[in-house]
Structure formats: structure tokens, C-alpha cells
Task: inverse folding
């Protein structure tokens, strides 16, 4: 049996991760009680498991950072590379949970579950018409691991789906167009599901013109920066679009004064699409795999630096 890799776990992490990692004999955990204790702990470890970054973490002893997020825009990639630090992500681990959440938001919007739930507080019985998902056309913006799975499940339900990405190509989807055609696609579909990462090329990729062309529903399980939120609020208030399902917003937590909170045609979840009771075991399996690589017993998975 190989030696144990000592990993420093950021104080804020998903429920069940410590217990799941405890099942691997080659993983030893240090769990600081406070963020300020992370840097000193790394001087005795060299490996960090985290979703967040602080420059105090970049101690000379740091050799590996395992992100528990699929994206890594929060990490100083150039500084890590210069310091010879390996960075790995959790790409693919969140796919089942985020995919199901996206479908839940789509269904809740088109079947008008949001207004029905709000009326429960006043015990108001108000039957109304809704829409059948299988009669709609859906565009999935960003067809990486999560977007591809969303598209596949929608197709399995009989939904007409078009994927949208930078290249306009994809091995599994029957129809994919380039992101440069997004405005035209908005005129064609009823729902847009956004599953994009946060980077300069995706900021406000959905703006007022796209929302006006859409007229239907928008769902975001990617990053809040990809939708112009001011334009979204105006489109919702004016009835330009029919509704929005948002797991992410431009500012998180969503400010109390945001008009989105009060809108009947909006469903908000607090960036919890990833959070399910099966995530910890999948994440622990990935971390344990990379811990073996850290010890010199195999290849890295999801290495970006």
C-alpha cells in the first residue's frame, strides 16, 4: 500500500466530503477551522482541495490544487504555473446533479409551478393553462459535459434540441450551430438553457437583443455573468420573455433589493444545482485518484496546469 497523501481541505466544502474521503486509506485530511489557517497548514502538506482562492494559499510548499468546481476562473493560473503548482478541476463530477436541476427548472417554468407554489401561501386555488415540454424547441448554449447531457436528456424526452458552441461542431448532437448564430437561434427556439463558464468571451453573451428575439424562457445553470441581468429584469417586467429559471446570478448572493425576487415568472435557486447527496462520493473518487498521482502512482485526471 502506498503512503498517504496529506490534503488540506478548505473550511467551506460540500457536505459529506470528509466522510467520503475517509474511505480511502491513501488520503489523509487536514481540515482547518478557519480560512486563515489554510496557508500555515499547507506548509506541512503541499496539497489543497478548495473551491475558492486566496493569495495567502500560495506558499512555497504548495504543489497541487484540486478544485472542487468544474471551472477554474477563480484561480491565478499564471501564478500557479510559474510556481510549478499543478491544478486539477472537478470537471464532469457535477454533470448529473446540474443536468437534473436544469431539467427541473425548465419543467417548473413551462408547467408554471412557480406561481402555483407562491399561491399556496394564500391558499389560492387558481387552475391555469401550461405548456407541454415536448412541444417546445430548446437551445443549449454551451455543450460541454453538462450542456451535452442536458441536450441528450431533452432529446430522449422527444424535445427538439439545438446545441450552440464556439465551433458549431459536436460529436454527439444532431444539430449544433456556432455561437455567432445565437441571435438567429433565439428567434427560432422557445427556451434557452445557458451552461457556459465564466470568461471574457461569455460575459453578457445573452443581452437585450437576444432576449427580445427569444420571447420564451431562459434557464441559467452556468455562470451569472453570461446574462445581462439588467436587460433580463427589463425583459421580464415588460413581458418580452415568459420567464426565467436562475441557479446563478451576476451578484451572489442575489441582493435583497433585486426585482427578480418578487417576479411570479421567475424561479431562483441559490447556486445549488451541484449540491446533491451523491456528489460527495463522486468528488471523493476523483480526489482520491489524483491523490495517487500526487504520490507518483498514476496519471492526473482533469489537469489544466
Result:
Amino acid at each position: 500500500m502506498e503512503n498517504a497523501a496529506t490534503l488540506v481541505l478548505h473550511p467551506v466544502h460540500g457536505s459529506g466530503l470528509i466522510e467520503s474521503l475517509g474511505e480511502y486509506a491513501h488520503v489523509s485530511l487536514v481540515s482547518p477551522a478557519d480560512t486563515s489557517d489554510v496557508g500555515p497548514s499547507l506548509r506541512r502538506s503541499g496539497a489543497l482541495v478548495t473551491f475558492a482562492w486566496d493569495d495567502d494559499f500560495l506558499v512555497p510548499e504548495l504543489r497541487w490544487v484540486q478544485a472542487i468546481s468544474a471551472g477554474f476562473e477563480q484561480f491565478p493560473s499564471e501564478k500557479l504555473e510559474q510556481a510549478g503548482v499543478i491544478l486539477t478541476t472537478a470537471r464532469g463530477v457535477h454533470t448529473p446533479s446540474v443536468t437534473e436541476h436544469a431539467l427541473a427548472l425548465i419543467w417548473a417554468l413551462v408547467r408554471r409551478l412557480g406561481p402555483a407554489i407562491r399561491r399556496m401561501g394564500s391558499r389560492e386555488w387558481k387552475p391555469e393553462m401550461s405548456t407541454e415540454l415536448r412541444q417546445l424547441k430548446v437551445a443549449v448554449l454551451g455543450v460541454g459535459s453538462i450542456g451535452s447531457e442536458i441536450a441528450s436528456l431533452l432529446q430522449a424526452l422527444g424535445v427538439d434540441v439545438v446545441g450552440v458552441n464556439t465551433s458549431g461542431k459536436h460529436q454527439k448532437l444532431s444539430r449544433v450551430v456556432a455561437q455567432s448564430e445565437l441571435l438567429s437561434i433565439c428567434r427560432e427556439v422557445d427556451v434557452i438553457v445557458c451552461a457556459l463558464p465564466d470568461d471574457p468571451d461569455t460575459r453578457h453573451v445573452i443581452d437585450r437583443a437576444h432576449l427580445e428575439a427569444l420571447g420564451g424562457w431562459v434557464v441559467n445553470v452556468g455562470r451569472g455573468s453570461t446574462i445581462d441581468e439588467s436587460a433580463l429584469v427589463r425583459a421580464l417586467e415588460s413581458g418580452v420573455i415568459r420567464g426565467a429559471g436562475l441557479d446563478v446570478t451576476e451578484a451572489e448572493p442575489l441582493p435583497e433589493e433585486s426585482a427578480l425576487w418578487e417576479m411570479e415568472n421567475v424561479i431562483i435557486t441559490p447556486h445549488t444545482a451541484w449540491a446533491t447527496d451523491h456528489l460527495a462520493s463522486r468528488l471523493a473518487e476523483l480526489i482520491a485518484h489524483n491523490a495517487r498521482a500526487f504520490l507518483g502512482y498514476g496519471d492526473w485526471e482533469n489537469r489544466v496546469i
Notes: The two ends are 28 Å apart (CA to CA). The mean pLDDT is 96.
